[in-house]
Fold these 2 entries.
Entry 1:
Amino acid sequence: MPQARPRARPKWRLPVEWLGILPFVAFALLFLILPTMKIVIGAFQSPDGGFTLQNLIDLNTDSIRNAYWTSIKLSLITALLGCAVGFAMAAAVVFGGLPKRLRSPLLTFSGVASNFAGVPLAFAFIATLGPAGLVTLWLKTEFGINLRAYGFNLLSFWGLVVTYLFFQIPLMILIIIPALDGLKREWREAAEVLGATWAQYWRMVALPILFPSLLGTFALLFANSFGAVATAFALTGPQLNIVPIKLFAQIRGDVLGNPNLGYALAFGMIVITGLANVIYIVLRTRSERWLK
């Protein structure tokens, strides 16, 4: 009886299905992971390359504390207003009886506007609401309304709030509409059968279910605003004392800059935005579990 030949071992081959994500892996490695590691390491290095905690200690100065507080206040205000206005607009489209044909243009615009930032956004607002902007001059010549006389200045804290809302509100719309779509019609019908009013349904059924998603989106909008730098710098320059602008001043390489202190500033931003994103992911997961 012939002896069976041992089965040849399959040769190792490159899993072709993984080749498609190689560009993403390379991009994340070069522009996310390695720069983050450089920032974290640099935050604990002295100018001569030794280990030190002095960079973190130097964050406890009046100027830097004020910068962090201004950035946190800016992020809280824009996240709160973005959530409120964006939720109202999304609810109006999903439940408010508006024509269904408005939904697709709104989502398309929100997708574009949520990514429209930096120098182009700053220029657009300066050309529209700046001291010599189109709307500013139109209100002054046609209605006698002088925005500067009423205390509005685009190149200020509240001007930056208005500018940030241009991308905060659309981002809220994009995130919250799927959550609103997840509210089951049976829940509303059951509430109506039991005698609940529309307000009672929202207060006792819909909002408690949406609360994790709303709070998570608020955390995401906070992180989105806290990390924005190009729009703020292009709009206000060094006039506004916020962390991204102070960070830019430290790492741009002039004789007054301290790159390692800049790394420490960036490390603090990473910690704050990282916590906000972790809160968003946890609450978003909990909300999706409720809506399934």
Entry 2:
Amino acid sequence: MDAGTLVVVAVGLLALAVASGMLGLGVAFAAVPFLGFFLGDLVHEVQPLSLFLNGVTAIFAAVGFAKSGLVAWRPALLLTGVTAVGAPLGSWLAQGTGQAWLWGLYLVAVGYLAVRMFRGGGSAGEGPGRPRLGLALVLAVPISVLAGLLGVGPGFLLMPVLVLAGYEPKLAAGINAVAVTMPSFTALVPHLRTAEVDLGVAAVLVVVGAAGSFLGARLTSRFVSGPTLKRVFGVLIVVMTAVKVVTLVTA
């Protein structure tokens, strides 16, 4: 990757890291389609780099939320344990899955979640004061496997599940930031043998992503309301999905 392209990628990733940091997601769900414009191999280039970036950005987002007291540690640690086990299985499955199928699964998953987030939260009678941790833990199992398969880390799927399970959006973002850190790195393990990553490019993007995610978490903690946070999530994944659909159709 030449210097000019690297600058473009770094600026784009900074914007994505700020937005994903606001949601406690880690940047991979947005970085996968974005980096796909510049790197040709989804499984061996895009996914390993995105997973590493996801883990780093989630750490810095978690620090940002923790400084504001927006991390509920018990559900965060329980979800970390569940997702850290399931994510590597998905990554292992990705090694033998066609790229067209992986992109198709990605687009279906983010499209479904965008619809659910715009339609609103959990079931009747459930609200932010009565979160259902058990439901979130059960759903975290298939979520972590699917996220590892897609190479994005579980945050973009876990965040709306936490909201739908009754967690207030800011608290859900804080829990999510902690819960997705470990599975991002465990999901990376099956990729290590076959990864083709430029370490110089990766180093630049890690620094940019870390700074952006911390800034995003602090913005949410101080200035962004819960309903606004849900809309930000919905808009972000709709935009990223639309861009990737156009790219696939015109390729």
